[in-house]
Design brief:
- With about 700 residues, the protein is α+β, with helices and mostly antiparallel strands.
- The protein has five domains: about 100 residues, Immunoglobulins (Immunoglobulin-like, Sandwich); about 80 residues, Immunoglobulins (Immunoglobulin-like); about 110 residues, Immunoglobulins (Immunoglobulin-like), CATH 2.60.40; about 40 residues; about 160 residues, Toll/interleukin-1 receptor homology (TIR) domain (Rossmann fold).
- Helix content is about 25%, strand content about 25%.
- It is built from 16 helices and 32 strands.
- The strands form seven sheets. Strands 1, 2, 3, 5, 6, 9 and 10 form a seven-stranded mixed beta sheet that branches. Strands 18, 20, 23, 24 and 25 form a five-stranded antiparallel beta sheet that branches. Strands 19-27-26-21-22 form a five-stranded mixed beta sheet, with no helix packed on it.
- Strand 28, helix 4 and strand 29 form a beta-alpha-beta unit.
- Helix 3 packs across helix 11 and helix 12 runs antiparallel to helix 13.
- The chain is elongated.
- Pfam families: Ig_3, TIR.
């Protein structure tokens, strides 16, 4: 469509403004000529047609009434061809008449074909545009002309609506048109999945037999108006790359030929329907196209269509060499492409030679093959053990992430007491006790556990993001409770955390503790896995995986940052509680101390008179070895805390720093820090606020 020319509606300025317009086509006798309009009128012999002056429908910002008010007159001319002599049209008022900004033919005849120009002008202003009209007869024994059809495409098994196009001029405003539909010019008993609605034919599910010509017919006075649409049906748009049929994609094809012999390599492929895009298939030698080889002996044939159905094609292309030479030997690749990807198949041309295989040569090759099979089998079965052995004896500690404080951040969701079972108890015991103890005390890693180590400095999400950023790995213990509660949501809400997962800035170790496929929102777990760039999934298979020599610990140790193990000397003073020996001998659990601290705190809070006793006993006993933080605690409306029996066997942490839990003594501190610690130590230990436990204690 041409760009509209500004037309000022104020009548007394119309002429002056339009005189400044410069035509893109030049001026003829001072008249701006916009050439031929893009809209072409086509009509069958004997049908009425209305040609509208295009100036009022895209070239000027005024209608016919405004132009008349401005003193402009509209004149019509006809010519046999564009640029030829134009003569004024005399209207008889019967078959051909001028009605406002249009010409009506009732009906059109073959002699009416040509170019019709409408000229809007007065003594100082002139603008012109032409419209083409084609009048033709129906094809033999048909109700349409094949050159005047509309074209539509529909995908197999999908819906399609066919519209009776170009009938707006034949429908009275507010009237319901009576339209009759035909297929191949014959009345048809339409199936139930095809509905006729006003000027449309709606096909709910397209079938292959819906291909054909659809004609809509309506009455306009004493005349019949027909419009025909050709519907072609295609296969659904493919979302896969083409498939090479020959040669094989999976392996290199080796062809041995004698020097001087002719060569003919043929590549065939199947292309799904990709719209109007032509199949793309070609040969290359190494990284060069065939036409770039500058060898007349080596030629690539045209693409040949073997078969085609509903837009899907099977095509082939051949590579020919008149006489094979030494320089022609090498690898040749056949490539096929579409908008969804590219595939290739490789052929190696080799010189044919007579080889004499002796018993010794065959035996040597067999022995080498057997050795390779044994090595591959050994590597497949003991890959982790071999890698750990090499790393422990010849590897060096990871320098990547040396500026980070922690080896791993541990994320886990606790189980509600009312949902506990034997399986969930084992998972809780593993996540809260066994996993931290083994990694920290047996292998010497430094873990960040939010409930134990997090010291709030702002919002909880910001604190978590800061701590994850200071960790070399992110360990997620994926349990059914973690999935149901969407424990990973914090990594999606915080932009920094999400970017770390997507870009691979931090490596994620996902420990699956149970079969999760039956859980309600398991599909979100799969989506999470696809989001994480550097992800390793490790299966924990219950108590058998707790043994230190199990595959689970070897796989986990392999994914953790490498550090040389140093023997840990755990003295009596460094052990938290000798009565809390874990299943690994020297490995200690913090649940007993945490529970004792929470129990004493709850009693001291519920009974103010016990607060000083608690402060002087429990606090004095621990202040020389441990540091902790206290919280203001709001008592419930009743003024008392729930009985300690309701705590069940949940793990309650009192935020003891990890260095002390691991049995390490605090380093010397500055006087200012010692004064802060002393002031901090004078506060009694109090439980966490509900808003803190609801976030930090349920989901790590």
């Amino acid at each position: 469509m041409k760009a509209p020319i500004p037309f000022v509606i104020l009548l007394h300025t119309v002429v002056v403004h339009c005189q400044k317009v410069v035509s893109k086509r030049g001026s003829v006798e001072g008249c701006t000529d916009w050439s031929v309009d893009y809209l072409k009128y086509k009509v069958l012999l004997g049908e009425p047609v209305r040609i509208k002056c295009a100036l009022f429908y895209g070239y000027i910002r005024a209608n016919y009434t405004h132009a008349q008010s401005a003193g402009l007159s509209l004149m019509w001319y006809k010519s046999a061809g564009h640029g030829e002599f134009e003569e004024p049209i005399s209207f008889d008022g019967m078959r051909m008449s001028k009605e406002e900004d249009a010409i009506w033919f009732r009906p059109a005849e073959l002699d009416d074909a040509g170019y019709y120009s409408c000229v809007l002008r007065n003594s100082t202003y002139c603008m012109k545009v032409s419209m083409s009209l084609t009048v033709a007869e129906n094809d033999t024994d048909l109700c349409y002309n094949s050159k005047m059809r509309f074209f539509e495409k529909a995908e197999l098994s999908k819906s399609k609506v066919i519209t009776c196009q170009g009938i707006e001029d034949y429908i009275q405003p507010g009237a319901e048109p009576e339209i009759v539909w035909y297929k191949e010019c014959k009345p048809k008993q339409w199936r139930q999945t095809i509905e006729r609605r006003r000027d449309t034919l709606s096909i709910k599910e397209v079938r292959e037999d819906d291909i054909g010509n659809y004609t809509c017919e309506l009455l306009f006075g004493n005349f019949v108006v027909r419009r025909t649409t050709e519907l072609s049906v295609t296969a659904p748009l493919t979302d896969k790359p083409p498939k090479i049929l020959s040669p094989s994609e999976s392996q290199m094809s080796i062809i041995e030929l004698a020097i001087g012999s002719p060569v003919n390599l043929t590549c065939s492929a199947a292309f799904g329907y990709s719209g109007d895009v032509s199949p793309l298939i070609y040969w290359m030698k190494g990284d060069k196209f065939i036409e770039d080889l500058d060898e007349e002996r080596v030629q690539e044939t045209e693409i040949k269509t073997i078969r085609e159905h509903l837009g899907e094609q099977e095509v082939s292309i051949s590579l020919t060499i008149d006489a094979l030479e030494e320089s022609d030997l090498g690898n040749y690749s056949c490539y096929v492409e579409n908008g969804n990807g590219r595939r290739q198949a490789n052929i190696q041309l080799a010189k044919k030679a007579e080889l004499m295989y002796t018993v010794e040569l065959a035996g040597g090759l067999g022995a080498i093959l057997l050795l390779l099979i044994c090595l591959v089998t050994l590597y497949k079965c003991y890959r982790i053990e071999l890698m750990l052995f090499y790393r422990n004896h010849f590897g060096s500690e990871d320098i990547d992430g040396d500026n980070k404080d922690y080896d791993a951040y541990l994320s886990y969701t606790k189980v509600d007491p009312d949902q506990w079972s034997q399986e969930t108890r084992e998972e809780e015991h593993f996540a809260l006790e066994i996993l931290p103890d083994v990694l920290e005390k047996h292998y010497g890693y430094k873990l960040f556990i939010p409930d134990r180590d997090l010291i709030p400095t702002g919002t909880y999400i910001e604190d978590v993001a800061r701590c994850v950023d200071q960790s070399k790995r992110l360990i997620i213990v994926m349990t059914p409770s973690y999935v149901v509660r969407r424990g990973w949501s914090i990594f999606e809400l915080e932009t920094r955390l999400r970017n770390m997962l997507v870009t691979g800035e931090i490596k994620v170790i996902l420990i699956e503790c149970a079969e999760l496929r039956g859980i309600m929102n398991y599909q979100e777990v799969e989506a999470l896995k696809h989001t994480i760039k550097m992800l390793t999934v490790i299966k924990w298979r219950g108590p058998p995986s707790n043994k230190l020599n199990s595959k689970f610990w070897k796989r986990l140790l392999y994914e953790m940052p490498f550090k040389r193990m140093e023997p840990l000397s755990i003295s009596h003073e460094q052990v938290l509680d000798v009565s809390e020996q874990g299943p690994f001998g020297e490995l200690q659990t913090v649940s007993a101390i945490s529970m004792a601290a929470a129990t004493s705190t709850a009693m001291a809070t519920a009974q103010p008179d016990l607060r000083s006793t608690f402060h002087n006993s429990c606090h004095t006993q621990m202040r020389q070895k441990h540091y902790y933080r206290s919280y203001d605690y709001d008592l419930p409306p009743g003024g008392t805390l729930p009985p300690l029996s309701t705590l069940g066997s949940q793990h309650t942490y009192c935020n003891i720093p990890m260095t002390l839990i691991n049995g390490q003594r605090p380093q010397s501190k500055s006087p200012r820090q010692q004064s802060l610690d002393e002031a901090h130590g004078n506060n009694a230990m109090l439980p966490l606020l509900p808003r803190e436990t609801s976030i930090s204690s349920v989901i790590w």
